[in-house]
Structures are given as structure tokens and as C-alpha cells.
Amino acid sequence: MIFLRKFYNIFFIILTRLIFLGIFALIAYYIVGIESEKYESNSVVMVKDLSAKPSASALGSMLLGGVGSSEMKDAKLLEVYINSFEMYQKLDREFNLTGYYASKKIDPLQRLYKEHQLIWFTQNSENLLKKYQADLKLIYDEPSATLQILFAHVNATKAKEIVEKIIEYSAQTLNLFEQKNTKIVLKFLEKQEREKYKAFIASLSKLLQYQGKHKTLDPKIDIESKSTILASLEAQLVQKEVDYNSKLQYLNSDSAEMKLMRGNIDYVKKSITKIKRQITGAVGSHKLNVNLSDFRLLESDVEFKKEVYRQVLTKLEETRFTLQQKSKNLIVITPATVAQSYSYPSKIKDIITIYIILFFLSSILKLIITLIREHKD
User: Fold this and answer.
1) Which of 14, 175, 200, 373 lies deepest, with the highest CB count within 10 Å?
2) In what order do the strands lie in the sheet with 146-153?
3) Within a domain: residue 375?
4) What are phi and psi of 284, to 5 degrees?
């Protein structure tokens, strides 16, 4: 009985090892002899915004978080676009990627089929995009603000051509993104220009109506002229009072000349009082200081609306100019090259990884069976 048990244990161990070795041999054979060898081509590009204004200092830019922020946003936007189905469709029209992923150039486990029971092997848009994205790598380097574009293909020359086309389509689309955003801003500014123009004309019309109603170009001018007249009258009053007091020393106060002088003095005093009341607003219809305040408010409103309208016009012209130029360029730092050897799969690494996984699985399985047997005993 003990002999049979030992024999059974030895047989089970050998059988388990043979099974795992068989699995390992099949996987290793697939990796070495069947799995598609893909050649990777890569290129390094950088988005340059020609419209960006340089910062006053590098330290100031860092504190404000502006170092490469625009370039980073553009690069990240390009990443999204390059990974998109729209980019895949453009490359598919050029290189027939749909036919490539369904062809015998791709090994059976990575190939797509027009009809297949398993959904992840079916040739549909979702799986085609996944295959494209699996062959594509995008690496953004923040310090240098560069984007590395890599693509793997069974044909090294095709891989290079696809990378070049990705760069070409990306450069075309980069300014399309900018133009779309600029058109939205332009539409908004054109609406603002019409509204601000109407507001400016309305404020100007109010000012003109006020000038017509009060029959004045500027109440300030009226006040200045009346102030000049007031100063002249006050000077005359002083002179007349001096003359009157001088003549009073040797003329009778009831004489015709002295009466005439007193009449002149009284008239000048009344005129001074009247003008002062007009300036200070003590007389009902002659509120020059109130008029001046209202006028200045209207005039300030006109100037404000005018300045707002001017700024909108300036921004509108800048936006129209931006729309006409290509402000963003995709600069190729390192052009795509033809790979001399395949990049994928990494056969030795994959075989070692599979061996380690199978070894641990077999060890775990043996441990489980041993524990079960000991528990039974």
C-alpha cells in the first residue's frame, strides 16, 4: 500500500511536470516561431506656438505655471487626436490597416476575423482601433516639451511611413483645432462688437440730447465764463465803492452824482448775487453746478462705452489676423527611421516570464494537492 502511494505520488509529479513542460514548450514555440515580429519606427516632434508671448523671466514663468503650458496642452491634444478613430481612418485609407490586421502577416492569436465566435477576435471598429492603439506609443517629455511618436508594424518601411503620415496629419489638424477655437471666439467678438457699438451710440445720443435740451456744449464752459464775469464785476464793485467813499468826503450823499453811483453799486451787487446763485444752483432753472455734474456723468459714460468698444474692436482685429495665419507648427526634432531589427516581441524575456509563471503555478498546484492528501490521511 505504501509502495503504491509512493508510486502514485511520483507518477503524479512527473505527469504534472510533463503537462507544464508541454504547455511551456507550446507557448515558447508560439513566441519563437509563430508570433508576429514587429519593427518599431519612432520620431520626436515639438509643438511651437508662434503667437505665444515670451514671459518676462524664466522664474516668473515657473511661479505662474506658464513654462510650456501652452505646448503641453497642444501636445496632449495631439495625443488624443492621434489615438482617435479619425486618425485611424486616415491611415487606413493610406495603408489599408483594416486589411493588414486581418491578414496572415499577423499571427492567428493577434489577427482579426470577419466572423468569429469570440467578440474580441471580430473585425469591428472597436477592435481595429484597439489593435492600432496597441501598435502605437506616445510619450510626452515635459522638461523638453517634446512628443515621441512610435509605431510598430511587421514591415519596417511601412512603420516609418505610418509615423511620417501621423506627423503630417497631426500638423494639418493642429491649426484646424486652433482655427475652430478662433472662429468661436471671433463669432462671440463680432456679437460683442455690435452690442458695444449700439451702447456707445446710445450714450452719445443721450449726451447730444442733453446738450440740445440745455442749449450748451459744455456746462463747464458756461461756469468758467460766468466766473470770469463774476470776477470782473467784483473788481468793478470794489472800484466803485472806493470811488463812492472818496467822493463822499466832499460831495453831498443826496446829490445826483452820488445817487447815480449808489445805483451802479447796487446794480453790480445784484448782478454778482444773481451769477453766484446761477453757479451754485440756488436759482431754479440755472443750476449750472448740477448741470455740470449730470453732463460729466453722461460724458464719462460716453468715454467708457467708447473705450470698451475700442478694446473689442482691437481684439476682433487680432482674432481675425490669428485666423488667417498658422500660429502653431509641428517641428520634427528627430525624423522617423527604418528599424534594423524587430522590436516586438521580446522573445527571451517573454519565454523567461512564461517559465516563471508556469513554475509558480505548478508549485502552487503541488502544494495544494499535498495539503489535500495530508488532510485526508
Assistant:
1) 200
2) 136-141, 146-153, 39-49, 328-334
3) yes
4) -45, -60
- Which stretch of DSSP H or E encloses residue 69? helix 69-82
Q: Do the Cβ atoms of 332 and 45 come closer than 8 Å? A: yes
Q: 3-state class of 118 per DSSP?
A: coil
The answer on 223 and 311 residing in a single domain is: yes
Residues 299, 354, single domain; the answer is no
Q: What does the pLDDT read at residue 217?
A: 58
Pair 255, 310 in one domain: yes
Burial 80-114 (b: 16+ CB within 10 A, else e): ebbeeeebbebbbeebebbebbbeeebbeeebbee
CA 156 → CA 153, 162, 233, 338, distances in Å? 6, 10, 103, 6
User: Coil, strand, or helix at residue 56?
Assistant: coil
368: in domain: yes
Residues 304, 361 within the same domain: no
> Does 249 fall in a domain?
yes
Integer Rg of the chain from CA: 46
* Count of domains for the chain: 2
Same domain flag for 284 and 375: no
pLDDT digits (tens, 9 = 90+) for 185-214: 888 888 988 898 898 888 888 877 877 776
Parent domain of 351: 1-35+345-377
286 with 358, same domain?
no
Can you tell me which residue has the cell 492621434? 82
d(C-alpha 165, C-alpha 355), whole Å = 40
- Burial of 125 (C-beta count, 10 Å sphere; 0-12/13-18/19+): exposed
Q: Does any domain span residue 45?
A: no
Same domain, 235 and 319: yes
Torsions phi, psi for 5 (to 5 deg): -65, -45
Closest by alpha carbon to 247, among 236, 226, 230, 261?
261
Which letter does DSSP use for residue 53 in this model? P
User: In terms of domains, do 249 and 282 share one?
Assistant: yes
- Estimate to the nearest angstrom the gap between the alpha carbon of 200 and the chain centroid: 31
pLDDT band at 66 (very low <50, low <70, confident <90, very high): very low
